[in-house]
Design brief:
The protein is an alpha/beta fold. The protein contains 7 helices and 9 strands, in the order αββββαβββααβαααβ. Helix 2 crosses helix 6. The protein binds zinc ion.
Length: 303
């Protein structure tokens, strides 16, 4: 009998790491937060990118219901200064979900044991790492600079796009499909476009069905939560999260393991579509003035 182990305490299907203990920034931290954003950009190599394939800049609306209009914290807004324009290749952060969870900072200590979904000896983490590295290689071949990121993302990470890669698991083995989300709370004005582009191309490339059961573990993903955690990307960085399919479902597993090239192609095409639709000079259009996320009210969990 196969033993199934799930990262999400079996209550939720998604295995995206969720925030546990909150770490709200006091208003006085605003200036420090801005300084972190400005200082977070690593040097970007000057590489002439090859021509990208022609892509439609207007994919269909996101077929997942990310909540809007959620109440925000009763705290003063925080201004994040527009990052200095940078030249050269586009920069993309690809996070391999659950990778190196033992290296999380103290405020994410609850994620140390969040090793992700599994099916027998197959772990979600290994699938995520394999796909993330292949996506990175494909994007680098197109002339982009790519950072493969672990569970602990660099504080204030600044890039043209950030995509967190996860896979799902649930006990019955029947649930299948992929889902994609952006933050439910205000961040980059381009979050929605990135999620829409990924959804458009991932579904087309893999033929996987949509799992409409989006969860707060995705749209409240800790790496989006700039006011809660040190290990969060800059709110200027367009960000999305994908659950590629269920490692616990035979049909999804066949796609993830035997047709990984289609999985990778879908993610690469979605990111490429987004980069073409949002050129470098438009990624950070202005200062962001954002009200902090609400305090985390759930009990501490270990996803
Ligand atoms: Zn996960």
């Amino acid at each position: 009998m196969r033993v199934l182990i799930f990262c999400v305490a079996v209550v939720a299907a998604t295995c995206a790491p969720l925030a546990d203990a909150p770490r709200e920034l006091p208003p006085s931290s605003a200036a420090a937060a801005v300084a972190t954003q400005a200082g977070a950009a690593a040097p970007i190599a000057s590489v002439a990118p090859p021509a990208l394939p022609s892509v439609s800049p207007s994919p269909a609306p996101l077929p997942f219901a990310v909540p809007t209009g959620l109440p925000l914290a009763a705290l003063p807004p925080v201004r994040f200064a527009r990052p200095d324009p940078v030249a050269g290749a586009r920069r993309i952060g690809i996070q391999a979900g659950h990778w190196l969870t033992e290296q999380v900072p103290a405020d994410l200590r609850g994620l140390e044991s969040a090793t992700g979904a599994s099916w027998g000896a197959l772990t979600e983490r290994d699938v995520n790492v394999r796909v993330a590295n292949a996506v990175a290689a494909a994007l680098r071949a197109r002339g982009h600079v790519v950072d493969v990121l672990a569970t602990a993302v660099p504080p204030g990470y600044l890039a043209d796009a950030f995509v967190a890669i996860h896979a799902d698991g649930e006990p019955s083995g029947r649930t299948r499909g992929f889902k994609i989300a952006h933050s439910a709370y205000p961040r980059s004005p381009h979050d929605v476009a990135l999620a829409r582009a990924l959804a458009h191309d991932y579904g087309a490339a893999t033929g996987l069905p949509i799992d409409p059961a989006l969860t707060g573990r995705m749209y409240r993903y800790y790496a989006f939560a700039w006011s809660r955690y040190s290990s969060a990307v800059s709110p200027h960085t367009p960000a999305a999260i994908i659950e590629m399919g269920f490692v616990t479902n035979a049909a999804d597993r066949e796609v993830l393991l035997e047709r990984t090239d289609q999985v990778v192609a879908g993610i690469v095409a979605g990111i490429s579509r987004f980069l073409e639709a949002v050129p470098r000079q438009e990624v950070y259009p202005d200062d962001l003035v954002l009200t902090p996320w609400p305090p985390f009210t759930g009990r501490t969990t270990v996803p």
